[in-house]
Every structure is written in C-alpha cells, then in structure tokens.
Amino acid sequence: MELEDIVLKLVGPIVAVGETYEDTRRLQNIKALTALVDRLLFRIADAAMDAEKPEASMKAIGTHARVFLQNLRSS
Predict the structure, then answer these.
(1) Is 12:27 a contact under the CB 8 Å cutoff?
(2) Where are the beta strands (DSSP E) in the chain?
(3) Cα separations (Å) of 35 from 32, 41, 43?
(4) Rounded distance, CA 75 to CA 64, Å?
(5) Is it the case that residue 20 has pLDDT exceeding 90?
(6) Whole-prediction pTM
(7) Where are the chain's structural domains?
C-alpha cells in the first residue's frame, strides 16, 4: 500500500455526494486533510532553508524541497 493510500484511508472520503449528512462528514475529512497538508508544507519549507548550505547532502535536500515549493507556487 502506498503512503497516499494509507493517508486517504485514514482520513476518509472527501468528495461531496450531495447528501447533507454524508457531506458534513466529508467536510470534516477535507478539513483534516488540508490541515495535514499545511503542516507538511511547513516542514518542507523548513527543509528548503538548507538549499544554501555548503554540505552536499543538506544542499540536495534543501534544493529538492525548494524546487518542489516553487513548482507548487507556479501551478
């Protein structure tokens, strides 16, 4: 099982179906998912700060994180 599949299984369905009770539950699911993504993006932004480090391993991680955030911003 992929990490994405595990997270989505834990969070539950997020797409509205047009039924009030079920969509109320799915609204809570999307709120949980977006809160998780927000926290993960904060961690990626932290890692991106290492893009200027002289150590090759730290720079590689920071650069990857920075490029990811730049691509996210431009999409």
Answers:
(1) no
(2) none
(3) 5, 10, 13
(4) 17
(5) yes
(6) 0.86
(7) 3-74
Output the six-digit token pair for 17: 């179906």
State the pLDDT at residue 1.
Answer: 81
Mean pLDDT over residues 40-68, rounded? 98
Does pLDDT of 48 surpass 90? Answer: yes
Q: How many residues does the chain have?
A: 75
Alpha-carbon distance 54 to 60, whole Å? 10
What pLDDT is attached to residue 75?
87
CB 53 within 8 A of CB 71: no
* Pick from 53, 48, 45, 52: nearest CA to 64: 48
Question: How far apart are alpha carbons 14 and 22 in whole angstroms?
Answer: 10
Residue 27, pLDDT score:
98
Calpha distance 16→48 (Å, rounded): 35
Q: Which residue has the tokens 């150590």?
A: 55
